Amino acid sequence: MFRTVELPLWLLVLILLFAAVTFLSHFLFPSVRWFFRRRMERAVAELNKRLQRPIEPFKLARRHDTIQRIVYDRSVLEAVTEHAREEGVPETVALERARRYAREIVPSFSAMLYFSFATRAARWLSEKLYTVRVDEESGQAIREIDPEATVIFVMNHRSNMDYVLVTYLTAERSALSYAVGEWARVWPLSWLIRSIGGYFIRRKSRNALYRRVLARYVQMATDGGVTQGMFPEGGLSLDGRMAQPKLGLLSYILAEFNPEEGRDVVFVPVALNYDRVIEDRVLTEAAASGERRFRASVLQSIWFPIRYAWRRWRKKAVRFGQAGVRFGEPMSLRAYSEDHVHVEVKGVARELLARVQAAIPVLPVPLIAWLVLRAGGAVSRAELERQVAGIQQHRQSSLMGQDAAAIVDTGIAGLTTRRVLVEGPEGVSLAPGQDALAAYYANSVAHHFKAEPPEIPAKENFATT
Fold this sequence. Notes:
Low-confidence stretches: 452-465
CATH class of the largest domain: Alpha Beta
């Protein structure tokens, strides 16, 4: 029993390594996890004191626990049984697929990463790229929402900057949870998105089991009071107009909503617009080809921010103009249910998109693009100033606090710098071959001007707001 045993060095190292891992996993790691979790809970408690809508326990639950809740949910188990029967596989195999889908969807939210890194990075990037203008008056209604209600921000999708901009603007209210497409499922981006509360969805999946797992996660998050961000269009606008809504996520929320009990769900329309959308040429090319296949390569995507950062460092680059944000009238799902005998997904989607569209900010570049396209030829600065002043006088145009001359100067500068417009002795006109890009910007505000703006007499009578 006490005899000496000779072992190769590599085997001794392997035995000691296994022993160390066993000791750490059974004795040290649980204590360390408990220590850090206690610190995190105290930090979140302090953080919740300054947030308008505190982070709900569902969002802070362990990822493993949430996955287990979804997988063993009754409706998911029924879908597992049906999937096994249809595919001719054992139920254990179908159950493992459901677990794999849940692991793919459920985020691993880190409050510290979200508020110490993500919101600060979003603020820095937003303010470096744009002059951010927010209609604060339109956001007053948000403060009056029932604190027990689940808030869902419903947004138009103009750019991938939408995620960044809205994260920055809602940082003082709560932590947002977004649905993100498969394009972002690459490491380390996927890890970062999960850590700040984003969850991945397969937009084109027809798998009934997958849809049931996704539905249950969305329903549990909504029932748990998680503040969410939703893009009903399901993708970026290719022509500047708002697209028809995708009803998947909205249908999951409505399917489990009971106006008689549980939390109310309040949708907050958020309208976004930009003087320059970073992906504009990629999007208009996709619209011309008739396919949603963006031709921007990974190399181009990496090279653009590097080149822009280099130009900013050399003080040769300027901001991309204004980014405008305006909040629409919030819609309580409980109140909507009381006013409608039958609550249909399409009806709710139409109402939400109408509220978003009505609130879209009118910014200088889209407005000037619309006026030049409508003119059909060269138009002088004086004429543009006259028409802008007329719009200011007679229309509720959001985020147009500058005088008419400043708006015209800003709009023309933004479009001539990018060679969309040219200015000559006869005035401002569209550059050859730039119709699609000009229309892309004009379409974002064209719905505000279905009728011709009224004529006003002379320049000295301009009254701007």
